[in-house]
Amino acid sequence: MQTVVLTGGAGFLGSHLTDRLLAEGYAVIIIDNFITGRRENISHLEGNPSVRLFEQDACDPLRIDEPVDYVMHLASPASPPDFARMPFACLRAGSYATHNLLEFAWEKEARFFLASTSEIYGDPPATNHPQTEDFWGNVNTLGRRAVYDEAKRYAETVTMAYHREYGLDIRIVRIFNTYGPRMRNDDGRVVTNFITQALRDEPLTVYGTGAQTRSFCYVSDLVDGIFRLLLSSEKEPVNIGNPSEFTIRELAERVLELTGSKSPLITKPLLYEDDPQQRCPDISKAERVLGWAPRVSLDEGLPHTITDIRAQLKL
Ligand code: NAD
């Protein structure tokens, strides 16, 4: 049985990835300090002999003596309110933790997998829309999102340096907005905000005009893309996301329809001055290299997410 060390395994994406890895026959060692993760996300795995949880910071040395085949680094706060709440945790997850795990992977002669993000593209100009992997990005180093964006950019750079200098086997995924069950209802991301507000019959808060666009990938599609990339031979970054683009206002209207809520929409000023106006993946590389494309539409994925948040809110 091959072993995967997975940081951030108690988080939204990490817990779904753990389920997939176990289903594929891997043993998983989860490293998580629960700064944004939830015990409920992995409580169904209690008693499973193929999973172990090490409750620790991914920046600290790992004490794992046995052979390890893959090191997957997903640990990082990931929602915009978390960037403001814990800026240094974002910076440390991208920098110290990445460095620590690269060193660990190198010692174990394991393959290293980095969860990067579409945020490394910053606010893309119209000429770079949708975003291809060869776009270098447009990030304000001093903006409030920079603690996350720049940490992830550094994480990509140091990962590539380990590959070039030491021959470490690497994979880098650039994840675009993903949603689904096990997101925290209060994580401040747009999908959870709208669903929580709609279920509570509170007004839905649209930041800015609501004309800014996002693309939303359902979690099972994302995990499938990650798993394919892990086993592929592609060492350059690959975008994984759903290219169907929606305005924030359209998303709000879909949520209202699917929850049956009569809540009004209200607008507030943008939380961040550098909030990207548009964000959409070009997934032709993933299609070509991984044979991957998303299958789950927003109308199919949102009801599962609504059911999960309804349960979290005990409604
Ligand atoms: P999440 O907050 O649900 O999960 C992150 C997990 O990492 C949590 O369990 C948290 O406790 C843990 N963690 C954070 N810092 C840690 C540290 N220093 N040591 C140990 N554990 C730590 O977020 P998520 O949405 O599941 O995101 C997972 C990864 O995917 C992140 O790296 C994020 O940047 C990336 N990503 C996510 C999205 C998305 O739409 N969800 C988009 C782009 C990139």
Strand content: 15-25%
How many beta strands in the DSSP annotation? 13
Q: Would you tell me the overall average pLDDT? A: 96
Largest sheet at a glance? Answer: 7 strands, parallel
Which cofactors or ions or other ligands sit in this model? nicotinamide-adenine-dinucleotide
Question: How much is the radius of gyration in Å?
Answer: 19 Å
* Class computed from helices, strands and strand pairing: alpha/beta
CATH fold-level name:
Rossmann fold
Which blocks of ≥5 consecutive residues have pLDDT under 50?
none
Layout of SSEs?
Layout (H helix, E strand, L loop, with lengths): L2 E5 L4 H12 L3 E6 L18 E5 L14 E4 L6 H6 L1 H8 L1 H13 L2 E7 L28 H21 L3 E6 L2 E2 L10 H10 L4 E4 L5 E3 L1 E2 H13 L6 E3 L4 E3 H12 L5 E4 L15 H7 L7 H15 L3
Bound molecules: nicotinamide-adenine-dinucleotide.
